[in-house]
Amino acid sequence: MNQGGLFITLYDKDTLQLYLDEGVYGQHMTPQYGEPSSQSAHYRTLADYAAAREGKHVFFFLDREIYYGGQIVGSDEYGAFYINGQKSPMGREANAPLVWDESPRENYEETDEAGVFDAGGDRGEKCQPFLIQFEDNEDMAGRYVISDQLYFELGEYPYPLPSNSIAGMGFCTITPGETDILLDLLENDHEGEIETVSDEPVQLDGDPVPFSPEYGVDSPEEAHPESHLEASLIANPELLPEHMQPDDATICRQVPISPFKPADMDKADVCYFTEEMIRDGTIPNTVLELKIRKAGKSAALQVKRYLKWLHDRLGDEANQITIHVYAPGFTSTFDGYIPDRLLSQVEKYNFTTDGTQAHF
């Protein structure tokens, strides 16, 4: 089974060719000189990086075209991403050197700080505190398909998937099922290809620091806000109890488990996809729902919505799916919001030091 993919949105072909040529990608992010606020997108973006593993496929989405980049290079146990400079808490913890700097590019305006540039318009000052590296093992880098080719194929699945619910996100993880469809289209029905050579004045200047668990939190209780907990557990699954670790499963995050809706679509925090594929690898085998506060009515109703929708859509096949609710405690009324017939698929796990595990 494939390792799934990263689906990355870009705005111009010069940038695409730079990343294809160098085998490097870095999301533009706001520099963080202290701890990110709870409203910041910093940890949400870090969680996408954290889901990268050796062999995961990289796709770029630009002007209704989807381009193949390559496969992730790095760890197959921890987050396969790299730390670039010290404009993030993790960068300072790792004392990471700046090895990738897009400041000299004509599209941007340099600032007084290395690695920080004005991206133009209302985007403001940006940096690239995290990187992924990828290489083309399929001899397909630069090939592209029209996005409608993918979305027509996804029409066979009557529910939303990460690649057709990416609005407002810079990049996202995609399921093994979506990845298989894209790889097949790129191999057998691609629209064309572009040169993977760039004349941009940017290249890696030295070896970037790979993520290591020592640069993250030591326990889930240290992670705040919730997106920080998500990023931490995905990057370093050893923080989880052994039975909740992914092993060889493909990791995706923010996977819709919901009917199509114009807004407020339910998305699961972390999902595992195993070789025992459900609906061609578009439905997860395991869901982790994460909370940084005691889980009560709201969390229980969310789990109920997941399971109700899965059973409505899959029938008995939904019985294969397990949902772990990982939180620092549970209210006494939590169970009462979930029908008895569904409780057997839910495990509650209290991750506080004095917490105890409960199975249902």
Please describe what this structure looks like.
InterPro entries: tRNA_endonuc-like_dom_sf. By secondary structure, this protein is an alpha+beta fold. The chain folds into 2 domains: 5-210, ph1033 like fold; 218-359, 3-Layer(aba) Sandwich (Trna Endonuclease, Chain: A, domain 1), CATH 3.40.1350.10. It contains 8 helices and 19 strands. The strands form 3 sheets. Strands 1, 2, 3, 4, 5, 9, 10, 11, 12 and 13 form a 10-stranded mixed β-sheet that branches. Strands 14-15-16-17-18-19 form a 6-stranded mixed β-sheet, with helices on both faces. The chain has a 3-stranded antiparallel β-sheet with strand order 6-7-8, with no helix packed on it. Helix 4 packs across helix 5 (176-188). Mean pLDDT is 94; it is low at 356-360.
Helix content: 10-25%
- Our Rg estimate from Cα atoms comes to 20 Å
Q: Give the overall shape, derived from the CA principal axes.
A: globular
Strand content: 15-25%
Protein traits:
single chain, six-stranded mixed sheet, globular, Trna Endonuclease, Chain: A, domain 1, disordered C terminus, ph1033 like fold, 2 domains, alpha+beta
How would the blueprint of this fold be written?
Blueprint: E1 5-9, H1 13-22, E2 24-25, H2 42-50, E3 57-62, E4 65-72, E5 82-83, H3 89-94, E6 109-110, E7 117-118, E8 125-126, E9 130-135, E10 143-146, H4 147-154, E11 171-174, H5 176-188, E12 192-193, E13 209-210, H6 226-235, E14 250-256, E15 267-273, E16 286-290, H7 297-314, E17 322-327, H8 340-343, E18 346-350, E19 357-359
Parallel strand pairs: 1-3, 16-17, 17-18
Antiparallel strand pairs: 1-11, 2-9, 3-4, 4-9, 4-10, 5-9, 5-13, 6-7, 7-8, 10-12, 14-15, 15-16, 18-19
